[in-house]
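Risk register update: the risk that structure generation would not scale has been downgraded. Supporting records follow, first protein first.
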Amino acid sequence: MKILVTGASGYLGGRLCHALLNRGHSVRALVRRTSDVSGLPSPTSDGALELAYGDVTDYRSLLDACAGCNVVFHAAALVEPWLPDPSRFFSVNVGGLKNVLQAAKETKTIEKIIYTSSFFALGSTDGYIADESQFHRGNYFCTEYERSKAAADKIALEAASEGLPVVPVYPGVIYGPGKLNTGNIVAQMMIERFNGRLPGYIGCGNDKFSFSHVDDVVEGHIAAMDKGRLGERYLLTGENASFMHVFDMAAVITGTSRPRFSIPLWLIAAYGWILVFIAQITGKLPLISYPTARVLGHQWAYSCEKAKKELGYSPRGLKEGLVEVLPWLRSLGVIKY
């Protein structure tokens, strides 16, 4: 089977390409000329992996990349809490999806589109655990990323209702070994924590997120290709926990001390404003921005029971994942304990 992966140079996309190749599929990886492709396997002489240079915002390049493919994994997205030009979220996350859907229509060989959405597209879950029946209320957005993914979710579901073979999947907070980019926020926070730049808990532990190991999410994507029902939504989430719990668990695993105090969200927000100001001067995106504090002020807890039942999705626990991640970070020399 010939499969196109958009966002193939990203954290999730690269590991998805590896997994698909290991299963004997032919993979066409859509990457930009400027992309870091170090996380991808080398293109093969037999064509099992080929690089297609283009961009989801460039319709012609996307249409060419779709040619001859049977399945599209649309994993390309801008995943940042803040950008100096917020319109980019919509041009990539919404416009890119529209281009994929139109290219699939024109190509006529696409049998399935696995669309990587996000838990943000469903909205916060303050005080309860949500499932696939939840739709974003649309009255408040913590970030422009959240706003763009909620808008794209509507477009994907409308396309499915019109007969396009779309299967949307919704990962939680993706973490695990792989690229050390902003998409791997748990690894980034562990680096800050163990290097003394994040000396306390974030907030009071009332936040709750659903943590998804990257390799489990990859397996969920492939299961959605094999077993997912067209037009059905699948949450590829995992254990629901606070970042306070993550920090405590990391301390137990590494035999180090737990943080002794909490950093209030108003201080995180103020620090985020300062980092955004610096970013506007330097051009380097901040790890923490003021929208981050807004996200941390809500809960994002979800159930993946539907994916377990229909796809055979089997997420590992957070402790098992951190037992893998922390030694990996130490092996890279980015943390010490």
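Supporting record for the second protein:
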Amino acid sequence: MKKLLLLSLTALLGACSSMTSTPQASLDGEVFYLQRIALPPTATLEVSLQDVSLADAPAVTLAKQSGPVKGQVPLPFHLTYDPAQIKPGHTYAISARIEENGQLLFINTERNSVDLTAKTQQPIRVRVDQIR
């Protein structure tokens, strides 16, 4: 009897946890630059997925990854976002920046649009340019 009760409770808890979890989608890619220089060991990378639909309003960030740079370019990233936030007809883009001690070293200067409605996502390559 106790085993049956324990089994029933386990099944119920499993069903509840699967109902409350939010569906997630993700984008993978890498950030790179063309200059033949090494990044300082204290550099940080920030990559964001943004809704850039409105030209007269700030972009809305849907996902962000930031932290210390591990290694040299290309620098991999993985963004996880909630697909329920994706709105039909909106435009989405990836932005990236590399900083050291709060000072900007590299930033993307071109729009890196992504189609979040595609069935499969190809890895995204984001080029950043050095700030002089």
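Residues 1-10, 15-19 have pLDDT under 50 and may be disordered. On this basis the risk owner (M.S.) recommends closing the item.
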